[in-house]
Design brief:
The protein has five helices and two strands. The protein has a two-stranded antiparallel ribbon. α3 packs across α5. The protein starts with a helix and ends in a 10-residue tail after the last helix.
């Protein structure tokens, strides 16, 4: 991928964060490793997680790979994993 592509992605993420902040939302970072640990504990595949969350498997992979989500999305993800939200946040 070109450097221009990555700069464009960063610009879009920054715009999304700005819009969410403006709307009163907050963006948090989820840890893919921690999500995978919770999934393993519950014996859930990505497809199972997607179904519990209410999206397609492909969309769930996007959510998991982007790592930056709204606090509402993080809460929904924790509910789908049947864990506390603090278990899946980075940091």
């Amino acid at each position: 991928m070109s450097l221009t592509y990555y700069h464009e992605c960063d610009r879009i993420v920054n715009e999304i964060n700005h819009i969410c902040d403006w709307m009163g939302g907050k963006i948090v970072r989820i840890s893919r490793d921690k999500v995978d640990i919770c999934r393993a504990r519950k014996k859930k595949s990505v497809a199972d997680l997607a179904e519990a969350y209410g999206v397609s498997r492909a969309r769930m992979n996007v959510i998991l790979n982007q790592r930056e989500v709204s606090v509402v999305s993080a809460g929904r993800l924790a509910d789908a994993l049947e864990c506390d939200v603090t278990e899946i946040l980075e940091g």
